[in-house]
Amino acid sequence: MGAGASMVGRIITSDACVAEGAAYLARIEPRFAVALAQTGALPLRLKDDGFAALLDAIVSQQISVAAAASISQRLKEVQLISVADVQAASEDDLRAAGLSRPKVHYVKDLAQSGLDYAALRHMPTQDVIAQLIEIKGIGRWTAEIYAMFSLGRADVFAAGDLALQEAAKILFELDARPTEKALNVMAEVWSPWRAVAARLLFAYYRVTKDREGIRG
Question: What string of H, E and C letters represents the secondary structure of 21-86?
Fold first, then answer.
């Protein structure tokens, strides 16, 4: 492994990687073993990286999954999913595709940012997050999710995610949903597989909510 690879750390590339991480977590934390028995094998959940992935992330902010999917489809239909196309588009073009006025500015800022997506693949995760959150409209949660699912980083954890917080509350029998800071502290001991711990908690959250008769 070269110096660059060692700075980046483990990359999740296959179901086998996820299974390895899940087995590790089940060994070090009995509650994870219990959760894994309920969820079954965890999904890989890898997506392509690049501009389109972050564009989708911005589109999805604070709206339903169905609404986000509809807007994303419209953007594809009118060919507004590349850096060059978004740069050339007018604000009215983007609004007509369903983007709110703030999100029009966010996607314009992203397209104008000059972000080197290929370079992000070889940067330490904290540097990736630091670069991404400099762009207006991209917060820490979005940057961590991008690192986790588009770059395949094995040791990143989006502790600000409400589903992860709720799943941790239930699984670890906490009195209240942990704060982002508290969950980050909890997750330290799950290194170097924190991204697999996130996958497990996401899966456990769905199982728990389904069991309670809640669909979301």
Answer: HHHHHHHHCHHHHHHHHHHCCCCCCCCCCCHHHHHHHHHHCCCCHHHHHHHHHHHHHCCCCCHHHH
CATH of segment(s) 51-149: 1.10.340.30
Q: How far is CA 20 from CA 10, 24, 26, 99, 171, in A?
A: 12, 6, 10, 40, 21
- Topology at the third CATH level for domain 10-45+155-211: Endonuclease Iii, domain 2 (1.10.1670)
Given this model, what pLDDT does residue 4 score?
47
pLDDT tens for 34-71 read: 999 999 999 999 999 999 999 999 998 888 889 999 99
